[in-house]
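Give me the fold.
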Amino acid sequence: MYPVQFRLEEGNFAVILAEIREWLSQQRIDPGSLNYQLDADHVRVRLEFTTPSHAAAFRAAFQDHLAPVAQH
């Protein structure tokens, strides 16, 4: 699996999640999983793709919405 982890800091999470789901459908990409965790000031999201090209295409399409997840 090829994970993409990021945090959404601005905007409406439900709207952006709908955009992500629509993009996945249009691209005919079925990620292995899509998980999210609500925090006080942001949402952490993790998608797992089955190919590196799908992960790269997703990053390119949503780069304006994505902030990296800080590693602890």
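The longest strand covers residues 2-8.
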